[in-house]
Amino acid sequence: MSATASRALSGQRTVVSLISTGHCYSHLSSVAVAPLFPALREAFDVSFIALGALMTVFSVATSVAQIPVGLMVDRYGGRLVLVIGLILLGGSFALAGGADAYWQVMLLMVFAGLGNSVFHPADLSILARRVDPAWLGRTVSLHSFVGYVGWAIAPMSIAGLQAAFGWRGAMIGAGIVGLAVAAAIQWRRTAFDEEPDAAEDESTSRGERFDIRARLMAMADGPMIRIFLFFAFTSMTIGGIAAFLAIAMMQLFGADQASGNLSLTVFMVAMACAVLFGGVLADRITAHDRVAAWTVAGAAAALVLLSLALGGLTAGLAAVAAAGFLLGVSSPSRDLIVRASAPAESLGLAFGFTSTGLSIGFALGPVAVGGLMDLGRPDLAILVLAAVSGFAALALAARRRTAPAR
Predict the structure, then answer these.
(1) Cβ 126 vs Cβ 192: under 8 Å
(2) Mean pLDDT of the chain
(3) CATH code for 214-399?
């Protein structure tokens, strides 16, 4: 290997490592407040509804900012936007550790959510431009997997910090981590040098050629809308499962609470492991839309079987594992579809647009089936989620028929 190739490979590894670390922190921060609810309730004398609202405003701020952030990524480059987002996210948590009133924490969670909005548009845009295409599937799968790790380690990490330093120290500690990741990315900024703006013709000002309206209109193109729907429907399925699977398994199979919780663990572990397998698969095939559509359709079939409650708890857990695995396999191919379908100059916007679909789906999933759970019909709730997965597969199949030849 030549010295130039070796440096390029080293730079790619640095980028992937730092981007993945930031994504892990993003997922950790999205649930970091929850373990502190009892301490925050005692400190500020507020209800659990008010405490839940802290996570709600964080999520809403993240959702609404992703499309504007995508435009910023395309105009100013992913690294700069990512560093600013990490500083805003980490700084908000650090400042929350010194809050004297509930409203201050609420306001800081809004800013934290805005900071959290940068990760998908910036991360995926940087990876799509900096990583060798032969490894991109495995790279985006690693990116997703490390995000799941962030969710997994959040409760014990925050609890450990709280035990050692109190809730204020836990908040400050969580903030320092984000600031440290921002500093690391800025320190190794030369590894991110191949940003799209670096090669622009300086004779034409960026402001003259950056047409926001035209870029937004490109997202309204039929194939991109169908990709958006695919993201929204699949995340709606996952959101509904995350909210009610444990209870549904208890009602469908007469399982105890431990077995119900085990089913959710099985689903999440299967999905996380399958993401890595899906990355290897995505690098070895070119028909990413077919892989994504058929695996999600397979997950829908597994959920239909689960709703029938045939064969007892063991069979139910097998259906849960199959659904999680198939949804996980689809994830890397899904991200590569966005890269292949979006205009090269609008990758940040495209990933911000589709990630907004993810956020909307996660928000709607529990609501869509909550009423059926209230009626004591977990079978119908699971069937609805199966239908939603079917709609996702159909949206992608329709995209294949309408997408222009490339």
Answers:
(1) yes
(2) 88
(3) 1.20.1250.20
